[in-house]
Design goal:
Length: 274
């Protein structure tokens, strides 16, 4: 039996993962900024799931949630950094009032929650699951701020994987493509300053036509995450769904093409040996 601490459980993957873990017999600390949105889902599990308030942008709240988890369950061995939302709009369209709060949640909130959890995870040689996205693999017009936030999640996760390996702590970087959750609904914000110059790269039409029509089955995605957490040989990166895999393959091909095209020129930059 595992014990999970999961952020962002009010909807989407966070809620589904909390329920799936509890339904298979694990213990779950489910958290959300507004704890009232998740209290009902804990009632069927006879104390194996507890709900706690956690605004991940508040470092003190992260420490308090970890302390409560230790008090009730004597700790946890899986941390899932799931809380987050997206911002669509061209770089010129976005304002600091729009993009900075997104970074506070998606990046700095993840960092603060992880820092609070690490003393506990070191005791259990646990697992950190960081929810990235296909948007964290490759950038695309109209989603640059969200790309940047998820690229940061990727970089932190890669560094953590190296830092924590001596403690037996694994990092799983989950990179979903489009799945039929409410992400394109309540979890996406659009830049208010709409500029006609960027109509060609606008994500507004994508959001409107794909919300509720995504091909990905979120329950199958959750099953893969559970399997990876249980496995001894799970990789660092878990692109989920054929679209995420396609994004990764195009990115690798493009990266290789760029490296090869100027290789002889770009490697000739060391001091000449005498």
């Amino acid at each position: 039996m595992k014990t999970w601490l999961i952020t962002g459980c009010s909807s989407g993957f966070g809620r589904r993962l909390a329920l799936a873990a509890a339904q298979r017999g694990d213990q779950v600390i489910a958290t959300a900024r507004d704890v009232k949105t998740i209290e009902e889902m804990a009632k069927p599990f006879d104390g194996r799931m507890i709900t706690l308030p956690l605004d991940v942008t508040d470092a003190a709240a992260a420490k308090a949630a970890v302390a409560k988890a230790v008090e009730i369950f004597d700790g946890f061995d899986v941390l899932v950094n799931n809380a987050g939302y997206g911002l669509f709009g061209a770089i010129e369209e976005g304002t600091r009032e729009e993009y900075r709060p997104m970074f506070e949640v998606n990046v700095f909130g993840m960092i603060e929650t992880t820092r609070a959890a690490l003393p506990v995870l070191r005791r259990s040689s646990g697992t950190i699951v960081n929810m990235s996205s296909g948007a964290g693999i490759a950038g695309s017009g109209g989603a640059g701020y969200y790309n940047a936030a998820k690229f940061a999640v990727e970089g932190v996760s890669e560094a953590l994987a190296g830092e924590l390996k001596p403690f037996g702590i694994r990092v799983l970087l989950v990179e979903p493509g489009p799945f039929r959750t409410d992400f394109l609904g309540r979890s996406i914000r659009m830049a208010a300053n709409v500029m006609p110059e960027y109509a060609a790269s606008s994500r507004k039409h994508y959001r409107e036509t794909n919300n509720g029509n995504q091909a990905g089955d979120p329950d199958r995605a959750i099953a893969v995450i559970l399997r990876a957490v249980d496995a001894d040989d799970a990789p660092l990166r878990l692109p989920l769904g054929p679209i995420a895999h396609s994004i990764a393959e195009r990115k690798m091909a493009s990266f290789r093409s760029d490296i090869d095209a100027w290789r002889d020129i770009t490697i000739a930059t060391d001091f000449k040996q005498r």
